[in-house]
Write a structure and sequence with these properties.
Bound molecules: S-adenosylmethionine, iron/sulfur cluster
Distance between the termini: 43 Å
Structural class: alpha/beta
Strand content: 5-15%
Strand order of the largest sheet: 6-5-4-3-2-1-7-8-9
Number of strands: 9
Length: 386
């Protein structure tokens, strides 16, 4: 009884920092092997978000055998983390088996979903298969003709994560349609202790925006407020570097960086094709890719100006300036410790805070913070080193 609150506090502080996984990720900052791959497990989707160019219901699911072959190859290249994306990954009938296979091969594994097909049973199966990180995409509080991904559907499901080992985070897209509700999305996630991020809509591969982006000044004020909150230590689920990057995008300012897409991170399509990122595709099959092919993509790209592939910008900045990016993240997380102490001094404080902001269904605080797919500050361990 006496030690319980302190043990809980130590556990919470540990969770904030244990996942830096510095040694493992550090290897990829100095060698020539890739850090992460986003694998499209299917092109098919159960929704039709107006801003999205990443789904195609005319294509069949790739088979489990093909996916396993590609996953083995991705691992053989030395990739440490795999992000299962789509389309909607949960519509693939073998998604649990795919996760299990990634974990058996030693990948740090995340999955990005719209959450509509998530059930308590499926979450338990994914956890049992070893999934470490889940991103649920939530754009609004209520559905709209632009996007149906709203807390109306997701709030009742947050309770599934109460005792789950899977780290949940929430990500939303900001555009004119969602902006009036983006603050509420952020508050709803953060107030439940869930690392949450809302980010600017990006253009399609032809650099066209499919939806109205929203008024620039208001967007800038919103990004500024997130930078402030990030500095105060709130669980904004992105780095200050990426928030600054988005502000520069809005202002039309040039940002100096070198895109590592196709080298430190790459994508594999649902047909097994090697893509530099979600926007830049090649016809080469992943089975034919060599480490030299990857290294050839270590160069500035002509599409860098205005690039909205934030996971690529994020990984590139991390590889280019690890001390600056990780240093700021560590400082931000350190600022969370005093409030953890305050709560630990009042044994019922956690309960009290959360009962005030608890979901109608009783959802309480989620497990700690991660960043983007499995990333440098995730609480993930790799079973086999490559
Ligand atoms: C393509 S979806 C695939 C996974 C899943 N169907 C989902 O929606 O989470 C992956 C992520 O990309 C985001 N996304 C799609 N199109 C976007 C765009 N034009 N701008 C910014 N984010 C976008 C989605 O909101 C989602 O968070
Ligand atoms: S749910 Fe995901 S894949 Fe489907 S349309 Fe929306 S953003 Fe695209
Ligand atoms: S700059 Fe952006 S769009 Fe171009 S390859 Fe890199 S990540 Fe892809």
């Amino acid at each position: 009884m006496f030690f319980h609150p302190r043990m809980k506090l130590l556990d919470k502080i540990g969770r904030e920092f244990s996942g830096y996984n510095i040694l493992e990720s550090g290897k990829r900052l100095v060698d020539r092997k890739p850090l992460q791959c986003s694998l499209y497990v299917t092109d098919r989707c159960n929704l039709d978000c107006a801003y999205c160019t990443e789904y195609d219901n005319s294509r069949p699911h790739p088979s489990l055998d093909d996916l396993k072959k590609w996953i083995r190859k991705i691992r053989e290249l030395g990739t440490m983390r795999i992000a299962l994306v789509g389309g909607e990954p949960l519509v693939h009938p073998n998604i649990v088996e795919i996760v299990r296979y990634c974990r058996e091969l030693g990948f740090a594994t995340s999955l990005t979903t719209n959450g509509f097909l998530l059930t308590r049973k499926l979450l338990a199966e994914l956890e049992d298969a070893g999934l470490q990180v889940m991103q649920i995409s939530v754009d609004r509080m209520t559905p709209s003709p632009i996007t149906k991904k709203s807390f109306k559907t997701i709030l009742p499901k947050l309770d599934y994560f109460r005792d789950s080992k899977i780290s949940l985070h929430i990500t939303g897209v900001i555009c004119a349609d969602t902006l009036p509700e983006s603050r509420a999305v952020l508050e709803t996630g953060l107030s439940r202790g869930i690392p949450t991020e809302v980010r600017l809509v990006h253009a399609d591969p032809l650099r066209r925006f499919r939806v109205d982006r929203g008024p620039r000044e208001e967007l800038e004020r919103f990004i500024d407020s997130m930078i402030e909150r990030k500095r105060r230590g709130e669980k904004i689920h992105t780095s200050e570097a990426i928030l600054n990057y988005q502000r520069s995008l809005l202002r039309g300012e040039h940002v100096e960086w070198t895109c590592m897409a196709g080298y430190k991170l790459f994508f594999v399509s649902a047909q097994g094709k090697f893509w530099l990122c979600s926007m830049v595709h090649t016809d080469k099959h992943i089975m034919d890719v060599t480490l030299d092919d990857l290294y050839a993509n270590y160069r500035k790209k002509s599409c860098q100006e205005g690039c909205g592939v934030y996971c690529a910008v994020s990984a590139s900045l991390l590889v280019e300036k690890p001390i600056a990016v990780l240093g700021k993240e560590i400082v931000a997380r350190t600022k969370r410790i005093p409030s953890m102490f305050r709560r630990s001094l009042t044994p019922d404080a956690d309960k009290a805070t959360h009962s005030a902001i608890t979901n109608p269904d009783g959802t309480q605080e989620m497990n700690g913070g991660t960043n983007g797919g499995p990333s440098a500050d995730d609480r993930v361990t790799l079973r086999k080193s490559v």
